[in-house]
Design a protein that fits this description.
The protein is 23% helix and 30% strand. By secondary structure, it is α+β, with helices and mostly antiparallel strands. Strands 1, 2, 3, 7, 8, 9, 10, 11 and 12 form a nine-stranded mixed β-sheet that branches. The chain has a three-stranded mixed β-sheet with strand order 5-4-6, with no helix packed on it.
Length: 233
């Protein structure tokens, strides 16, 4: 399948292909590409891949999405998707990484895979001096913010989301990091069903790095968390 948005591609030392889209990618086109690539990985005719991209503004509904959490149903297009989780927002300024790995050749353990995605994001954010944390009771990567006024306490806000799907032990979907999206767009949903915590971004935290630098950090951190297959066997 060809992609209509401009691409640059490079091979990683582990044999994982890195694909970087330089223009926003239509969501349904992205799903179709992942379906095709995952089938080829399972058949042994394509390498594993990580696809870095942005989408136009849209909302996605995971398999646990509650319609009451879609606050503004007519604001952006809403897409049903097979990944786990609830409602999420995607849009410009958010770096999405769709991760297509063959867990048959790595570790056929979904919990461990999600934990490794968390480690990957946390390690990448650390390159920018951002301390991310994860919690057993709520998915995603969080940062602690100082009190917003007298008598208030520290608060946590979400900086990255995780949503995965596994098909025949090959992974789809992945992560999204808020680099510099329009944070007001998140108000149209209750992100991931969590109303008591807000969302933030790298730019909101004072880190003005461009997405290209985030891509570099993701690449640097990847192999420490997902080592080459030949080193696993």
């Amino acid at each position: 399948m060809s992609l209509q948005s401009p691409l640059s591609q490079s091979s990683f030392a582990s044999g994982v292909e890195w694909i970087i889209s330089t223009a926003p990618v239509d969501y349904q086109q992205a799903l179709a590409f992942m379906d095709t690539r995952v089938a080829a990985i399972r058949a042994g005719t394509a390498s594993e891949a990580v696809w870095l991209l942005e989408h136009p503004p849209l909302y996605t509904a995971g398999t646990s999405a509650d319609p009451s959490e879609l606050v503004s149903p007519d604001r952006f297009d809403v897409f049903q998707t097979g990944r786990g989780g609830r409602y999420t927002y995607h849009g410009p300024g958010q770096r999405i990484a769709y991760v297509m790995l063959d867990l048959r050749l790595r570790s056929a353990d979904v919990r461990a895979y999600v934990h490794n995605l968390e480690k990957w994001v946390i390690s990448s954010l650390a390159d920018f001096g951002i301390t991310g944390t994860c919690h057993d009771d709520r998915i995603g990567i969080w940062v602690e913010r100082p009190p917003c006024g007298p008598g208030t306490v520290n608060r946590e806000e979400k900086i990255a989301a995780i949503g995965v799907r596994i098909r025949h032990w090959v992974t789809l979907h992945g992560i999204s990091i808020n680099v510099n999206p329009d944070l007001e767009h998140f108000s149209g949903i209750i992100p991931c069903g969590i109303a008591e915590h807000g969302v933030t971004s790298m730019h909101d935290l004072g880190v003005k790095s461009p997405i290209a630098e985030v891509d570099d950090a993701l690449k640097r951190s990847f192999e420490a968390v997902f080592p080459p297959i030949q080193d696993i066997r």
